[in-house]
Amino acid sequence: MIATAQRPPLGPARIGLYVFLVVSAIFFLLPLLVVIMNSLKPMEEIRQGNLLTLPVNPNFDSWIAAWKTACTGLECAGVRPGLWNSIKITVPAVVISTLAGALNGYALAQWKSRHANMTMLLITVGLFIPYQAMLYPTVKILSNVGLFRTYLGIVFVHVIYGLPYTTLLFRNFYVGVPDEISRAARMEGASFLRTFWSIILPISTNILVVVAILQFTGIWNDYLLGLIFAGNDNLPMTVQLTNIVNNARGAANPNINMAAALITAIPTLVVYFFSGRYFVRGIAAGAVKG
């Protein structure tokens, strides 16, 4: 006979935990539910003040308008142009910053010198400097090299601003990797880069997923850097969304604004939905522990 594990008794502490989790879930999900409901309502229902009720005649007209016809200033093309701008900015910035952070983190983990910890300390200090304080010097530098308000400029800014964070996470991960792996590769004649690319990177799936998700979320949801450095032809969805909400032409349309906000958030939700279990696995495996 195979013994089965018994579930712990449902005592007051466990009931209190379940109540806390349910209340927390409602607290965080209720605003999202309100946004979804009102994005499906026609303006006639919203004008009646029924913001907290289910839509009587739900439709996706506001979603279509937010996607194709909502005005973001002088242009009325919705958030659709911003989607492609966000994709072409986010994808290369995430890939470059993640791989560069992995290389930096591995190099610092392998650097057996008293200067290694000081270098890591300086990188960590950079994380605590708000990037708002570095905007003006960054603008001057990019202006001098001809990259200000260009596509390459905004990708470069996201990569540089993300490197301290990605380097710290990867360094903390690689410190826990046994040195015997790197030494065995060197004994076989592999160079530093060959060891990193062929041996270290393939065993870094957990931390790669964690860092890539964090970078994707941060870059996709960025507003300030996109507004300043992207230029008018490369404005991301977040800037387009703000322009729709703050557009002064005609009456305000909360249903369109909420639909545009949901469309902007969908890519990050999709990323978490398909890679969430890998993210949790990376956290549980100690991917962000030092």
From TrEMBL:
The entry's keywords: Membrane, Transmembrane, Transmembrane helix, Transport
GO biological process: transmembrane transport
Annotated membrane topology: Multi-pass membrane protein
One annotated Gene Ontology cellular component of this protein: plasma membrane
Subcellular location: Cell membrane
Stretches that traverse the bilayer: 15-37, 121-139, 151-174, 195-216, 256-274
Main location class: membrane
One Pfam match: BPD_transp_1
Residue ranges annotated for the ABC transmembrane type-1 domain, each copy included: 83-275
PANTHER family: ABC TRANSPORTER PERMEASE PROTEIN, GLUCOSE IMPORT SYSTEM PERMEASE PROTEIN GLCU
Official protein name in the record: ABC transporter permease subunit
Species annotation: Rhizobium lusitanum
Family: Belongs to the binding-protein-dependent transport system permease family.
